[in-house]
Amino acid sequence: MSQQRELRLAGLGGQGIILAGIIMAEAAGIYDGKFVAQTQAYGAAARGGFSRSDIVISDEEINYPKARELDMLLAMSQDAYEENLSYLKPEGILIVDSTYVSEIAEQHVFSIPFTRIARETFRRENVANIISLGAISQISPYVSEPAIASAVEKRVPPRFLELNKEAFQAGKDAAREAVRRSEHQDEADEEI
User: Fold this and answer.
1) What is residue 46's predicted lDDT score, i.e. its pLDDT?
2) Predicted confidence (pLDDT) per residue in 29-71, tens digit
3) pLDDT attached to residue 185
4) Residue 64: what are its φ and ψ, rounded to 5°?
5) pLDDT of residue 146
6) What's the CA gap between 57 and 37, in Å, rounded?
7) Global pTM?
8) Taking the CB of residue 87, how many other CB atoms lie within 10 A of it?
9) Phi/psi class of residue 112: alpha, beta or left (left: φ > 0; alpha: ψ in -120 to 50)?
10) What angle in degrees, to the nearest 10, is found between the helix axes of 161-191 and 145-155?
11) Contact 101, 74 (CB under 8 A)
12) Predicted confidence (pLDDT) at residue 181 exceeds the cutoff of 90
């Protein structure tokens, strides 16, 4: 039986959400050999307006290309979190950029400061999207880590390749720490 997965990356214009969605779609389709559909929506403002990229992944042909019930949501802003949370399945994976998302109602969330890491480690906020892809590669099982890494390498300009590889690794490291925190929290909750 075919398994279709729906992922949404959401945030603000200027955060690289559309590029991250294209990279995820290329990773799933080209490198993991899945059927994939990628759609995007964004506001009229170049920076600061909403931005969203949906990726539908399947083992079989996709009949409807838009995400309706999310298996994973990446929210890079408070508005993106609030506007898209209702589409996330109860068992779905929620990842937020804690730099901008501070009011979280969900108990189980992977909260990682992507933009702060980009700012402090790389002195460039524009790699926060690649950091988030590194994190997704560790948290979400829907697209393989080697596929995402390959898609990042093929998509970014050669002069920024090393920077983006380092940003991807920073995201992987941050996600591993977030997973450890989540496991410890789950254990603590079980003891209560």
Assistant:
1) 60
2) 999 999 999 999 988 666 678 999 999 999 999 999 889 999 9
3) 66
4) -135, 120
5) 98
6) 7
7) 0.92
8) 16
9) beta
10) 150
11) no
12) no
Tokens for 30, please give them: 């080209």
Scan for tokens 């804690």, then name that residue: 98
- In the block, residue with structure tokens 């068992």: 91
DSSP bridge pairs for 96: 75, 111
Q: What is the pLDDT of residues 109-158, one digit of tens each?
A: 999 999 999 999 999 999 999 999 999 999 999 999 999 999 999 999 99
Token pair listed for 87 = 């589409």
| Region 5-191: CATH code | 3.40.920.10
> CA-CA distance, 69 to 71, in Å (whole number)?
7
Q: Are strands 50-58 and 5-12 parallel, antiparallel or unpaired?
A: antiparallel
3-state secondary structure the chain: CCCCEEEEEEEECCCCHHHHHHHHHHHHHHHCCCEEEEEEEECCCCCCCEEEEEEEEECCCCCCCCCCCEEEEEECCHHHHHHHHHHEEEEEEEEEECCCCCCCCCCCCEEECHHHHHHHHHCCHHHHHHHHHHHHHHHCCCCCHHHHHHHHHHHCCHHHHHHHHHHHHHHHHHHHHHHHHHHHHHHHHHHC
* 1 CB-contact burial (10 Å; exposed 0-12 / middle 13-18 / buried 19+): exposed
